[in-house]
Design brief:
Elements: E1 15-17, E2 23-25, H1 28-37, E3 43-46, H2 52-59, E4 64-67, H3 70-79, E5 98-104, H4 112-125, E6 126-137, E7 147-151, E8 156-161, H5 174-180, E9 185-192, E10 196-202
Parallel strand pairs: 1-9, 3-4, 3-5, 5-6
Antiparallel strand pairs: 2-8, 6-10, 7-8, 9-10
């Protein structure tokens, strides 16, 4: 039986849900998609990794989908010994471009300073009342490799390893993720028994 809290009064409190190790039904993704569909001419930014299943899925949900694989760009810059902050040049979208932004577990691959950098960029790129969906792994999680979160039927998500990406893993507790994203309002969060965490934030 899943343990739950009354998130209607405490929206930042996680619900703990039982699931299989690498396949689970997302609770946040349906809420994210519903919010996008409520907005006219909605535009979405997926920060990667690139996944054809996800491109096909979101292309049916929004007016315009943009994909910028920041995982791959981080890896390329690291191999070239380029300054870490140069990677943000790839996110040079105009202010208030997007109704939704997906970070997947991107913040797990950044140190605290760089998480602050991506949060600042999201604040600039997202529209008022726009949403940011964040996935993360527990600090005790034993899957430090980079995965794509591949969307299937009925919001079932499977984790597919991306062996070509070798990025350091920064495991964080739930409260640390919330603190790093504190410029946004936390709407929902879920913790699954396989160590995955989902967060839905809104820019208010």
């Amino acid at each position: 039986m899943a343990n739950s809290t009354n998130s209607a009064t405490q929206p930042w409190e996680p619900r703990i849900l039982k699931t299989e190790p690498f396949v689970y039904t997302s609770m946040v993704l349906p809420m994210f998609v519903h919010g996008l569909k409520q907005r006219q001419e909605s535009q979405l930014l997926d920060i990667g990794p690139v996944c054809s299943e996800n491109i096909n899925f979101f292309a049916r949900q929004v007016k315009r989908l943009y994909v910028c694989d920041m995982f791959l760009r981080l890896e390329r810059d690291r191999r070239k010994d380029m300054a870490p902050d140069r990677v943000w040049r790839h996110l040079d979208y105009p202010p208030e471009s997007f109704d939704g932004i997906i970070l997947w577990d991107f913040c797990d691959r950044l140190d605290k300073k760089d998480v602050a950098g991506i949060v600042e960029l999201c604040l600039k790129m997202v529209k008022p009342m726009g949403m940011v969906m964040v996935y993360a792994l527990s600090e005790q999680e034993i899957m430090p490799e980079v995965n794509s979160f591949t969307i299937g039927d009925d919001f079932r998500i499977s984790l597919q390893p991306q062996p070509h990406l070798d990025l350091h893993f920064h495991g964080r507790q739930n409260r640390d993720v919330l603190a790093l994203l504190s410029p946004f309002t936390a709407i929902k969060s879920f913790i699954y028994r396989n160590g995955l965490k989902e967060f839905l934030f809104q820019y208010q």
